[in-house]
Amino acid sequence: MPYENILVxxxxxxxxxxxxxxxxxxxxxxxxxxxxxxxxxAFEADDEVGCIVLTGSEKAFAAGADIKEMADKTYMxxxxxxxxxxxxxxxxxxRKPIIAAVAGYALGGGCEIxxxxxxxxxxxxxxxxxxxxxIGTIPGSGGTQRLTRFVGKSKAMDMCLTGRQMDAAEAxxxxxxxxxxxxxxxxxxxxxxxxxxxGMSRPAVYMTKEAVNASYETTLQQGIMFERRLFHSxxxxxxxxxxxxxxxxxxxxxxxxx
Length: 258
Ligand code: HXC
Fold this sequence. Notes:
There is one protein chain. This protein is of the alpha/beta class. The chain has helices spanning 30-45, 67-70, 75-81, 85-88, 90-93, 109-116, 143-151, 153-162, 168-173, 186-198, 202-214, 220-234, 238-248; strands spanning 6-11, 14-19, 51-55, 60-62, 98-102, 105-107, 119-123, 127-129, 166-167, 179-181. A 6-stranded mixed β-sheet has the order 1-2-3-5-7-10, sandwiched between helices. The chain has a 4-stranded mixed β-sheet with strand order 4-6-8-9. A hairpin with a 2-residue loop joins strand 1 (6-11) and strand 2 (14-19). The longest helix is centred in the N-terminal third of the chain and has 16 residues, at 30-45. Residues 24-25, 27, 63-68, 84, 105, 107-109, 112, 131-132, 135, 139-141 line the site of hexanoyl-coenzyme A. Pfam families: ECH_1. Keywords: Fatty acid metabolism, Lipid metabolism, Lyase.
């Protein structure tokens, strides 16, 4: 399928999506969000893909929602179109893990999209921020909520109220990103990590994702019970038998349901 605003390829069992509006620093226009949703649908349906990497350019992962496109919207436009809801949430409903590989600017909606992914790997030059306040608005796709859960109230307030950017080192220290890698290696490293995940048992991968995500939505006791029930259910899978047999026999597992 031809896309206007993204590049799509597979590397082994990894689906790689590259945001590609270089002249606008990957500003997230309606067309780009549509392309992204369609690419995620395609990877989700493809049994040969086990994990997805979402990246941008070396200068910008994405500099936010497209300001030129939204500047003249009225309240009624925004409300009736349910502006930002439609399309954007596709990332959060994907069952396959999505790794955000961020170099350069991840601002506004760009930071929000990175946070919707399952985890973030940052290049040394990555910069995260919620600068919406500087253009007279506020984050609209989870920035105030997800950033606060990642970095705590004090840093989230600081970033959302002043619009200041966080560099990669601070983002890693604060728990926003899981690892920092040299910019030149970003995509290769992300694909390597994604390939490792894609080699695991797919039911176990899905269950892990469901259980970790449940921790945001439930009490500790209920979350632990949910995890326990999923854990029990892995014993009904061929892959649990294979994984444990491989350990005992000192060999690599060959999971059937990858
Ligand atoms: C539309 C954008 C854009 C954006 C950059 N561009 N960001 N176009 N929407 N969000 C365009 C510029 O207009 C310019 O196009 C080109 O990209 C290069 O940008 P420059 O500003 O010339 O680059 P530079 O001087 O290097 O500065 C980089 C930057 C700056 C610091 C990232 O571009 C910037 O501050 N961008 C806006 C960041 C922002 O406020 N994001 C939040 C958006 S609101 P031309 O044609 O002039 O050359 C948001 C709300 C989310 O995301 C709500 C829910 C999703």
